[in-house]
Amino acid sequence: MKRSAIPMVVGVLMIVFGGIGLVVSLVTLKAVPSHHMLEKFPAVVLGIFEVIVAMLQLDAGIACVRYRPSATTRAVAFGFARITLTVGTVLATWLAFRPDSGQASSLPAWFVLGTVVSLAWPAIVIALMTRPSVKGTR
């Protein structure tokens, strides 16, 4: 049976995006001065979760490229972790920056666009890696 090319393509993209995400997350964490750690605690916790999800994405990408039997499970786990983290970040941001109760709440367009992009990639990974043709490549 011929192997599907989906795990290879998705795996390479996951390695690239995971590497970028890891670098950005680590730089962001490093940017928080140590004497501001307690007052920036939510940002530090979010940064740590971002590092964990980026590492999960790298791990899943490597498993996909190597056609490991666990690649589907790892990719789906990454997808759900990324979606959960994105939704949590959006909710926390909205709660932290919502206007007073008398005004209409609106988030900037760039924030909405970033959220859509952050939700699209893991949804694509889940959709592609759970296809029957991919499950047959084990």
Molecular structure report:
With 138 residues, the protein is an all-alpha fold. Helix content is 75%, strand content 0%. The chain contains five helices and no strands. The longest helix is centred in the middle third of the chain and has 27 residues. The protein is elongated, with a radius of gyration of 18 Å. The termini are close together. 20% of the residues are buried. The model has no long low-confidence stretch (mean pLDDT 85).
Short description:
The protein contains five helices and no strands. It has 138 residues and is mainly α.
Write the layout of secondary structure elements.
Blueprint: H1 6-31, H2 41-65, H3 71-97, H4 109-129, H5 132-135
Helix pairs in contact: 1-2, 2-3, 3-4
Question: Keyphrases for this structure?
Answer:
single chain, 138 residues, mainly alpha, 5 helices
